[in-house]
């Protein structure tokens, strides 16, 4: 008999107040208007200055459209404000979305949503903020003990919702430092892995993001024990966040935070530059 686990978590606001239906309806309307205008998802993405995957996710109702996105889409599709009328409902849903995550992660998710700076180091998998939907689904599907299907889909949707941090303006300072092994591990299979590498290229080319890789040929390394994130909440001092087997720790003691900041700074100096990192990912895609 398969051992599956259902996470204990509050009901999502989208499930309890019907906002999920709002976003699915907005997604269908966006798709209808885009197709009526004779545009592909890629063409609309170029007009509203976002990625094609974001347009796709919004049309499928798995990403909450930002108010700015609705305004740009209105102009691009010449709808006369048809989409923007939902702006207030969208703002309310974005506020409530902070309660969607499991209890042990909720405080961090709330902090991340308003942070002015996030610097993340990961040594096992691609960070959640950079994951594609299918990659995230593969991560949660492979987890042990097994999660049930509803929990998997809920966790995937919540992870995708966190990625709205890339759409904020003014943009927070965002940098990601990944071990080369995380890029090489084909989680989800070849097609999912390839799409994930392409996603890294897309995000890495954003002018608001710095993406670097620590290659496996480095003979020195100041942080071999675990992944961590340095985060600066709005109006507060920088903190560090670590997570091991579901046990989260948000560190605010300045002396401890300094240790993580020092490690991150040294690793950035040892890693490939952002330009070299993009070249490495392009090479990996060419070799597949």
Written overview of the protein:
The chain is of the alpha/beta class and 288 residues long. Helix content is 51%, strand content 14%. It has helices spanning 13-16, 19-36, 41-48, 52-59, 67-77, 87-96, 103-114, 133-142, 149-162, 180-184, 190-204, 254-270, 274-287; strands at residues 4-5, 117-122, 146-147, 173-179, 209-214, 228-232, 239-244, 247-251. The strands form two sheets. The protein has a six-stranded mixed β-sheet, with helices on both faces. A hairpin with a 6-residue loop joins β6 (228-232) and β7.
Concise account of the structure shown:
The protein has 288 residues and is of the alpha/beta class. The protein is built from 13 helices and 8 strands.
| Structural class label | alpha/beta
How many helical elements? 13
Biggest beta sheet summary = 6 strands, mixed
**From N to C, what is the helix and strand string?**
EHHHHHHHEHEHEHHEEEEHH
Q: What percent of the residues sit in helical stretches (DSSP H or I)? A: 40-55%
Beta-strand segment tally: 8
Chain-averaged pLDDT: 85
Spatial sequence of strands, sheet with the most strands: 5-4-2-6-7-8
Q: Low-confidence parts, pLDDT < 50 over ≥5 residues? A: 5-17
Give me the Rg, rounded. Answer: 19 Å
- Amount of beta strand: 5-15%
Name the overall outline.
Answer: globular
């Amino acid at each position: 008999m398969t051992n599956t686990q259902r996470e204990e978590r509050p009901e999502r606001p989208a499930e309890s107040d019907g906002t999920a239906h709002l976003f699915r309806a907005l997604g269908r309307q966006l798709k209808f208007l885009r197709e009526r205008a004779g545009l592909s998802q890629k063409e609309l993405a170029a007009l509203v200055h976002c990625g094609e995957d974001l347009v796709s996710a919004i049309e499928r109702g798995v990403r909450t459209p930002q108010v700015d996105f609705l305004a740009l889409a209105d102009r691009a599709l010449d709808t006369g404000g048809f989409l923007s009328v939902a702006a207030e409902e969208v703002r309310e849903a974005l506020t409530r979305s902070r309660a969607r995550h499991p209890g042990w992660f909720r405080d961090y998710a709330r902090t991340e949503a308003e942070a002015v700076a996030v610097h993340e180091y990961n040594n096992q998998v691609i960070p959640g903020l950079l994951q594609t939907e299918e990659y995230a689904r593969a991560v949660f599907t492979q987890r042990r003990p097994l999660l049930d299907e509803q929990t998997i889909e809920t966790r995937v949707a919540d992870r995708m919702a966190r990625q709205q941090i890339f759409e904020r303006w003014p943009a927070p300072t965002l940098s990601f430092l990944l071990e080369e092994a995380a890029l090489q591990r084909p989680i989800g299979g070849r097609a999912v892995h390839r799409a994930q590498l392409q996603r890294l290229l897309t995000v890495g080319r954003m002018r608001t993001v710095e993406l670097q890789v620590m290659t496996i040929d480095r003979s020195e390394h100041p942080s071999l024990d675990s992944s961590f994130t340095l985060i600066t909440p709005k109006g507060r001092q920088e903190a560090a966040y670590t997570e091991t087997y579901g046990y989260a720790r948000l560190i605010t003691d300045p002396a401890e935070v300094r240790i993580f900041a020092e490690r991150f700074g040294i690793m950035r100096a040892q890693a490939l530059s952002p330009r070299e990192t993009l070249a490495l990912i392009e090479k990996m895609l060419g070799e597949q």
